[in-house]
Amino acid sequence: MSKPKTVRALKDNEARAQLNAVRTSPRKLNLVAQTIRGKKVQQALHELAFSKRRIAVQVKKTLESAVANAENNHQLDVDKLVVSEASVGRGVVMRRFHARGRGRSASVEKFFSHLTIVVRERGETA
Question: Where are the domains of the chain?
């Protein structure tokens, strides 16, 4: 006797990839994520390839992983994929201390964030 199979959270024409514990603040990551929301996958990959932001490299790898999941696991057509969702969440915050003058200290917060990219297969209407 085994556990019952869990119901798939996504629709049949969607695939997802997650990137957890990225060493950047959610504010900075969201700036990159909002540039690719709602765009075709090829256009989003081109924009990430030429972005000047450091985190764009990891976002591009995550998007490529979502495309690979759609192609290999769910048999979706790569040419019809659109970035339907790119959500950013807040991760842990490491708190460190920085020595200041006269025996005082100041706190330094190092933010982590989570990224979830969902791609959806859409018809050739656009």
Answer: 14-121
Neighbours of 62 (CB within 10 A): 20
The token pair that represents 115 in the structure block? 């990224």
First to last CA, the chain: 48
Q: Which CATH class is domain 14-121?
A: alpha beta
> Given strand 81-99, what is the order of strands in its sheet?
14-22, 105-121, 81-99
In single-letter form, the type of residue at position 87 comes to S
Residue bearing tokens 């603040």: 25
pTM score, two decimals? 0.91
The Cα-based distances of 38 to 21, 24, 45 in angstroms read 24, 23, 13
**pLDDT tens digits, one per residue of 53-111:** 999 999 999 999 999 999 999 999 999 999 999 999 999 999 999 999 999 999 999 99
Residue type, position 95, single letter: R
